[in-house]
Specification:
By secondary structure, the protein is α/β, with parallel strands linked by helices. About 40% of the residues lie in helices and about 20% in strands. Helix 2 packs across helix 3, helix 3 packs across helix 5 and helix 5 packs across helix 6 (about 190-200).
Length: about 280
């Protein structure tokens, strides 16, 4: 399937963030791809094209304080970037070719953390998280750049439950399908963080968990990056294809409008014939 991408600007308050819509020409599910801290939409463009080829419309975008907006990097808070994501989500769902009931949100690291929070604020059917980060709730409004790396490292090596963390609480309430991808040798988002997320998704419809062997947090080797792309694209293909199959099966089972009208008319005719023959006795 041929794909295309168009550069767009997403309004957020009194400014805008840059984005790229990638997709085919038909009505399809929407996929929002969110980069991590110090990343950019460029990291997801190739993946967006692969997913769009499955029959989806994909949106990549630059979070505030990143790419061309780096001048504000030191001032950006999680609240700011969550608002960016909400605006991007609304832009994607507002696209005339997007099925608002079939939305995929895929985020890496910081973007995965915010993607989990987003599920409590907007309808998301499928959630993909690569090395999702975890942060304390109490410093939500503190600029991301100003957070203590030592405190974060200690926090991420502890057991955290949904009642103590906003992202985990949102995960606990999520009822869609989840993909979690871990880097085996990740020192930024260590294994305890992944376990905290896995334990939180108690109501998920399904959970797929994959580990990229030997990989670091940033997937610095091409083979590791490609491994993640393969996992993500195959999972999206499975989820979207399964949903389409369910929809087709439902359409086959449900009588078409003309057939329903014919059944009603046949029932009325049978009732009238029975009445004329004296076979119908009022109750």
């Amino acid at each position: 399937m041929a794909t295309r991408h168009n550069t767009i600007h997403i309004p957020v308050g009194d400014h805008s963030i840059a984005g790229t819509l990638v997709g085919p020409d038909t009505v399809v599910p929407g996929v929002m791809l969110v980069h991590g801290w110090d990343g950019s939409q460029e990291q997801y463009l190739a993946r967006a094209h692969e997913i769009a080829a499955l029959g989806c419309i994909c949106l990549t975008f630059d979070l505030r304080g990143h790419a061309k907006d780096k001048a504000r990097r030191d001032m950006v808070t999680r609240e700011d970037n969550l608002n960016d994501m909400l605006a991007a989500y609304d832009t994607l769902v507002g696209h005339p070719s997007v099925d608002g009931s079939a939305i995929v949100v895929a985020g890496s690291s910081y973007g995965g953390y915010l993607a989990a929070v987003l599920t409590a604020l907007r309808p998301v059917r499928w959630l993909a998280m690569r090395a999702p980060a975890l942060y304390k709730d109490e410093d939500w409004m503190v600029p991301k750049y100003a957070l203590s790396k030592e405190e974060l490292a200690a926090y991420r090596n502890t057991v955290v439950t949904p009642d103590r963390n906003r992202a985990l609480a949102a995960s606990a309430g999520f009822q869609g399908d989840v993909l979690i991808v871990e880097s085996e040798l990740d020192v930024i988002v260590p294994h305890p963080v992944i376990e905290n997320y896995r334990n939180a998704f108690t109501q998920a419809h399904s959970m797929t968990y994959r580990v990229i062997k030997g990989a670091d947090h940033s997937l610095s080797q091409k083979a590791w990056s490609q491994a993640y792309t393969t996992v993500l694209v195959n999972w999206v293909d499975e989820m979207v294809s399964g949903a389409r199959h369910e929809r087709e099966e439902l359409a086959i089972r449900e009588p078409k409008p003309k057939a329903q009208k014919k059944l009603r008319l046949n029932g009325l005719r049978s009732f009238l014939r029975a009445s004329r023959a004296g076979l119908h006795t009022p109750r």
